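Let us work through a complete example step by step.
Step 1: write down the sequence.
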Amino acid sequence: MAARRVAVTGLGIVSPLGLNVAETWDGLRSGRCAIGPIQAVDCSALRFQNGAEVRGFDPTKHFPEGKDAYYDRFAQFCVVASREALRDSGIELTPELRERSAIICGSAVGGQSSIEKGFEDLYVLGRGRVHPLTIPKTMANAGASHVSMDLGLSGPTYTVATACSSANHAMGQAFRMVRSGEVDLAVTGGSEAIFTVGMLKAWEAMRVISPDTCRPFSKDRRGMVLGEGGAMMILEPMDSAKARGAKIYAEICGFGMTSDAHHLTQPTVSGPARAMRGALNDAGLAPETIGYINAHGTGTPGNDPVESKAIREVFGARADKLPVSSTKSMHGHALGAAGALEAVATVLALHYGILPPTVNYNERDPECDLDYIPNQARAIQAEAALSNSFAFGGLNAVIAFRAVRS
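Step 2: predict the structure and record it as tokens.
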């Protein structure tokens, strides 16, 4: 079977910027920063108090009474975002299609709140047992498995865990499965819910968290800000999408992945650069066709100059005129779900012709010398875009999207 073009026909999201795609897109294009004081846990003993939480999410509105207890928060995000994406696609699930549908999700740490509750029961409250559903709730594949059961999809289903590149790796694998003809539909993305005392203390020990807000690429940046959420996309063959008259947000057309083979936490220029080139080559896109990059852009002193140099290495003189932004400045760094949130932002940017900004940008850094779309969105009809995710462990994953104009 010849390689098939792959369309993005449905989007779903639960993010710090909103509980659905419409609310999130409104926040992205308006440059609204969702970073604020963390409410889920007491942060008084931490060096930082701010994060990008999903506010106002009520699981009882999405799951039958008592059933929400079967889902860790990260799995709830995954299911709710998948439902929205499937509704948005308007696709009719026949028995045959249900068997030829994949669910590929990304999550770096799985059910953290359930793990924390188990430890609290054992070590703080002195109870002799933990909740009987602790294992099913904490396992990283819980989100994908619940989506499979919730939507009635029985094809290949699994979870990818590659730290902050998890969602991009998941979406890249889903894209390849649809392109090759192995499946005819994919529900793919990522979810994460990390606001627990133990997880926050672990990140505090890394000394990479900003004490106030996230300022990617700005000279006065002071570190990353943690976030949470879930985002999912529906992928299907372009021919099938057109035949049924589907709304097509964009084409997912390339995927590149590499390993730095260097250090667990210190990135290289060559690894990300090779991943970007890999995505371009896989898509058959010339560098000059790229009109936007959604950067990994964590706001840390180490990541931002390295990513900037990697972009310049790939695009050369073209880099001077290439718009780049980090939406983490608005929705924080959702770890394994980050690539999914940013992929949705990238697809919407291509679809609507509006590039989201890097907010909180105050001062140009000589080491970060690109156009970062500072503070205000920009109306540009880009032909194609890249979405970058680079992870601890030196694992890099880049997805290429192409605009589909009606």
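Step 3: interpret the result. The first helix runs from residue 21 to 30.
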